[in-house]
Amino acid sequence: MAKLMKMLQPLQSEYVDRRFDGTKDEYFEQLDKSSTLYIGNLSFYTSEDQIYELFSKVGVVQRVIMGLDRNTKTPCGFCFVMYHTREGAQAAVKYLNGTRLDNRQLRVDIDYGFEEGRQFGRGRSGGQVRDEFRTDFDAERGGYGRVVAQQIAASQLTMWQEVQAGAGMGAAALLGAPGAAVFFNQQQRSARRRQQQGVDAQNADAQQQQEEEQEEQVVLNPKLRGRGAEQEEEEDWEQQQAARRKRARLQEAAEEGDAAAAAVGDQQQQQQQQEEEEDGGEGAGEVGDEAGEQEGGDDGEGDEAAAADEEEEEEEEEQADDMGED
């Protein structure tokens, strides 16, 4: 059945995901409905924008999911492209499969559908499985395959150890002059880096030890403790004195304000008293004049009464004299 479907549909992908949870018939049924592509043989340096720009030429791209190394989370040479329609995905397989991007021939296949987690490499070192056992050198995909690279590094290290141990020039001859020089430079840089790291660690330990000793001396030496306490007390005293001076300045300013207000009040009160005294003097003069006039009237009336009395007495005396003569 699967072979018949592939014969009837020449665009049917040769790519098969072995981790698909289902039968082959179910797998190909999903392929018939899918609008998702698997893009392989990418350079590690190809960006998502480049993928989007290229595949947008044949249809409306919904999403681009870059394949990542499981450990480093960096691109590792594949991606998924999701179209809005099935027709867009088929056009991409028809027109873009085998095209070159970043000087690499792309592999474009219909995929059964993206699921979360499929964007990570499945190799032991975190990348794609094909890069684990690749024996050729590919600069666009990290150099040698991981297994071969590890074998080369191990053999170079062994040869270099033999050279350092004085086992002869046979190992150096196996490496070759250029390879031996490159490896020697790398080892020198690594040794200098380790040495510098050791020096930095020793300096950090010495500094930490010196700080701990200083703290211990402060704790054990009463003079240092007293000096710290005296310094704190002196700072507290200076702060208190500054606060007192500030309060004194504020109080003096308040007193000066009160004195100025009191002076203005006294001046106003004196002016008011002076005005009252002037008003009182004029009233007293008028009262005195009236009293004088009244007293003068009373004196006149008294003189008139005395004169009347004297006239009555003189008349009585004259009558008495007249009676004596009779």
Automatic annotation (TrEMBL):
Primary location: nucleus
Biased composition range(s): Low complexity: 196-209, 259-273
Compositional bias per record (Acidic residues), positions renumbered to this chain: 274-326
Pfam families, sorted: RRM_1
Domain of life, source organism: Eukaryota
InterPro entries reported in the protein's UniProt record: NCBP2 (IPR027157), NCBP2_RRM (IPR034148), Nucleotide-bd_a/b_plait_sf (IPR012677), RBD_domain_sf (IPR035979), RRM_dom (IPR000504)
UniProt xrefs under SUPFAM superfamilies: RNA-binding domain, RBD
Record Gene3D superfamilies: 3.30.70.330
Family statement: Belongs to the RRM NCBP2 family.
The protein's name in its UniProt record: RRM domain-containing protein
Annotated source species: Tetradesmus obliquus (Green alga)
